[in-house]
Amino acid sequence: MKTIPKPKLRFRLGRRRALTGIAYAAVPLAGFLLFFAVPFVISIIRSFQSGLTQRFTGWDNYISVAQSESFRLAAVNTFRFIVMGVPAIILFSLLLALALDQKIIGHTFFRTIFLTPYVIPVASTVMVFQIVFEQSGILNSLCLQQQPVNFLHSDNAFYILLLLYVWKNFGYNMLLFLTGLSQIPSEYREAARVDGAGPVRIFLSITLPLLGPTFFFVFVISIVNSFKVFREAYALGGAYPHSSIYMLQHFMNNNFQNLNYQRLSTASIYVFLVIALVVLALFLHRSRKGSVQL
Amino acid sequence: MSTSSNAMYPVMSMSKWRRRWNAFWKNLILCTLLAVIALTVLFPILFTLSGSFMGEEEVVRNFGNITVNGEYTPMHLLPDHIQLDGYADLFIRQPSYLMQFWISLGICVAITGGQLVISILGGYAFSKFQFPGRDVIFYCIIVLMLLPYQVTLTPTYMVVRALGLLNTSYSLILPGVFSAFGVFLMRQIMEAVPDSLLESAYLDGAGSFVTLWRILVPNCRSGIFTLTVVFFALLLLFTFISKSVYNATLPVVTTVRPVKSSISQTKTLEGEFSYSDSSKVTARDDWRVTEVLVETGRQVDEGTPLFVIDVSDYRVQRQNYADSLLKISTQLEELDAQAETEEIASARKLDELKQQVKLLKYQIRNVNGIYPSSSYTMVQRQNYKRNFEMELVKAENSIAELEEKSITAEDDRQRTRKELASQQQVIAVELDELDRRYPADGIVRAEEIGLVDAVLVEEGKEILRGEDCVTMHRGSSDIIIEFDLSVEEGESFQKLSTVSVEFSKRSWDEVRKVAVTETDTKMAEDHTRQMDPNGEVWHYKSVMKDMASPPVSKKAKVTIGAMSGYFENVLPASCVKKDADQEYVLAVREKDSLFGKAYYVEKIEVETKAKNSREAAVTSKDTIAAYEIVETTTLPVYPGMTVLVR
Prior knowledge:
- The complex is a heterodimer.
- Chain A is mainly α.
- Chain A has 14 helices and no strands.
- By secondary structure, chain B is an alpha+beta fold.
- In chain B, a hairpin with a 2-residue loop joins strand 1 and strand 2.
- The two termini of chain B are 60 Å apart.
- The chains are: A mainly alpha, B alpha+beta.
């Protein structure tokens, strides 16, 4: 946000300030070290060991996981899911946020309703999705002429999961966008309108650029949530669902249940590498733009 | 664009009424659109809600399946009769639910509060301060946040165990408090608060904490509120679903479903091996059985009488052999006596002849002394001498003759002896053979320890030579299972958790009538396990004690589950409970595991009511192995827990 006043730097700098900052960060950091970093290091160690005897095995786990059909299937599915799901959910929730930002009648009411799926437990609603898409489900009964199809055990399962993901998470994304929109000072838009800019022009030139940080945030959160969609997939199809919705989490969860911890660790290192690279790219991209940190 | 919009909506010139009219339409259209979306979004929730007021029967009709006999049943969104059965079930008949809910709520509140504190502290530090490595650390936090939770679940467990927090609610709360997501979100929110606000407070002499508490937090109220709601909602789910492994007191809403045959969640290995050899007692001759002493299922030792046969025939035959043996031996004795007398006679004669030869030789040598020349003439002496010489020759001849005769006589006797001896031998062999074909006392005995499988002889019946009389199983009725399992790299089989032996058994009560063969699965007791030094082949030995219904078939199947890894001691099944009211009964096994004292579902007996649903198999009784159950290892279960099988 270019417009934030500049005294920022003077305020933020200074040796004493830095020490105070470290002191504030110390408690959260200690927790992260203990409950995230240390376990992650343990995982890295385990990925180089054999599961049974804990012998050092070098890259064997990495090779065997990379060659594993199920891991590849899971990786491709997850990638496909993120590529299709994240833009879809961002677009949908942005449109709704823009609509609700118009201060129409009952916008608080709608906001609450749209947030409900995010708060409701998965298990209760997945059942409804099952009822709708089952072989003897509602959707099949609506199109009576056709041969009944079990949508959950066809390639459509992927799109059902996509729907479930959007359904569940769009409310939260919308809320984030609304917060972002409310932080844009209304004077900018007023000024633009006075200068004769239309609504589309205002959106493209003012709203969208100023939503940049929110976009980044929503993007990251959407990816996080797309990983969490495993819960829904699991509830829909169990540990071994239709191959179109066999996600990386399935692979990991199954290995966890079978206590193949070394394979789980290896797979997670792969996931970690990919995620780290993507986030790094985003980070660098944003800091090159320089306007706003992160 | 700007000009056209200017022309259409001249801001300045637009009349008040016109503007209101426009706003109304805009509102109406947007509202309608949003209402449609809202209804779609709410549909699953409303559907569930209305379902909670339906009676059981109606729920099954509505939620179960849509087609009955090919016809679609009319689906209805509202209950026919509003019933509170479900709620009564949950709150009154299962009061533990409320308690569990209460515990979960407490944990959630604690985690949410902690997360707020941590997030605000972290967000403050990362947004309003500048210190070395800040961005790198923040980057690491984001990346860690993106990791799937399965990755760190087990290591986190180890950390919690190292801290000595196992089986306390802190084990759930502490790792939950440090939410990367919260720090991330708080940083975003605080970043938006202008620094100038803080700076003015700072200039007024406020410390960094006062600035945070008095300026930053009030300014981020809405953000913090959102965070709280989101945390709480997420946590409630999260606690219910994933981390409940830490604490067995947490409620579990499980859906256990039988896994379809095509997919297997487990690595169940199967192998075939024989657990006992069969042996049999065969008739060694044509026997006539007079008495049967054993019955099917009897455990016999070496030498245990099996049955009695008629041996009168055998006794006659044996007597004949004995008689002829006696005859031969008397013949041999006679021969020996004869040889002795003959030898003595010839020896005496030989002595006489040798004396005579001696005398004659003396006489020949001293013929001049015996017949002095004074009284006998030369011719006379000559004649005497010739006589003597002739006598000598005669005597010597008879000696030779005698010796030759005695040798031939000896030869003859030897031949006869040999003949008799061989005869004796043949008879002995035959007798031996006869003895082997018939037990001397007429009782057929077991030759080794075993289990009588079938008795094929009957009293008074004749059996032919080579026919089976009794079939048995070698060894005792304890089945000793020895099984080698090769372990491939990457598989983690550490424990033989179940040995199920499938065998055919007979209903021993109905022995001799109909042999009923059925398959049964038995748990093996006392299994021991040895791993070979290079750690790749596992040798299992299991002893199954089962005296009541001994197995008959030769092969059994061992199923070895993949429960392994961190589970160290298998305790005997301690809590198998049955609940007559419920449809499904759990058998739960207690284990010392990495996760403290954990229970896992050993097996589930599902008694499915015949439903119309196509998905649910219509079976009367079905046993599902523990490993096929969803979330076996991650869900805590407790003795007697009733699960719903969809």
